[in-house]
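tl;dr need the bound structure. longer version: we got a ligand (NAP) that a collaborator sent over and nobodys looked at where it sits. i said id run it. heres the input, straight from their email, havent touched it
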Amino acid sequence: MVVTGATSGIGRAAARAFAERGDRLVLAARSPATLAEVRAECAAAGAQALDVPTDITADGAVDALADAAVDRFGRVDVWLHTAAVMAYGRFEETPARVFEQVVRTDLLAAAAVARVALRRFQAAGGGTLILVGSVLGHITAPYLSGYVASKWGLQGLGRVLQQEARDTPGVEVCLVSPGSVDTPVYQRAANHLGRLGRPPLPVTTPERVARAILDCADRPRREVSVGRANVVMRVGFTALPGVYDVLVGPLMRLLALTDRRTPPRDGVVFAADPSSEVVRGGWLPDLGQLARAVGGLPGAVGSALRRRPW
Ligand SMILES: NC(=O)c1ccc[n+]([C@@H]2O[C@H](COP(=O)([O-])OP(=O)(O)OC[C@H]3O[C@@H](n4cnc5c(N)ncnc54)[C@H](OP(=O)(O)O)[C@@H]3O)[C@@H](O)[C@H]2O)c1
């Protein structure tokens, strides 16, 4: 299994899940230090793993990654592509260099991954490419122009590849389209809007998306949507475009932006930030902590009552 985007969020959750069932892994992302951590996590789960620091936007980098995978393990059966970056801002206020790097990473580099993976699969007689798109490959939202344009492009590319793969037995192309997921992609995003973004409710876990990905690896499907609101949003966008356009701006500002102000910044669009690379973004309550707090409630109330000065 090759995982591009293995150091954070969904890719890291999937790498762990593949490792737990003993799959042999080749892990790629830009940050060498975090990749070494993820390799160690996979090894601790009992898997053989190779980490190959890779910037997928660099010339020849994806081919070199495939070579490293084949050198180590003989062939690639599954290539999971999750790597992406995000940028908030009105289109005209987002610097062109930021918009272009988002498209370069999220669409053009995804195409480079698909090209390399499909050529290797054809030569080897089969393989499964899993592209992680987004519900934003089916609907649109303001302030995310580069990301939305890329995800629509990736959706179109993925569907073309599925149609072409019909002529190459054994070669499968799957699209996984999550809604909101609790990962740090929101904190890591570039921001030229002034307000920090957040995942709008309902938010699912990266582990839930990882399960859908593992399922695709075992039983390839055209597209898997992960997120309870995805269908509702897609129906609203398609059937009632006028109403959708009236509501989407206010809803985006209410549900998908925090009140926290931020100066303009490029986030991880141009370079990795190892300190922000974790599986969960901290957008969901920690249920364990919540249960402990509820469990400790009677004691806390008791001691508060005992402290009352009567
Ligand atoms: N989180 C959500 O709510 C959500 C919703 C729908 C779809 N998705 C999609 O799910 C996928 C994973 O997102 P996530 O939320 O898990 O994001 P994330 O936590 O920010 O992880 C993104 C991964 O991509 C890697 N990456 C970024 N640029 C790269 C480059 N140039 N070369 C190689 N690796 C690169 C990052 O590592 P380095 O920075 O070290 O390179 C990191 O491992 C993305 O395709 C995203 O669009 C996410």
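gonna send this back to them w/ a short note. The chain has one domain: 2-306.
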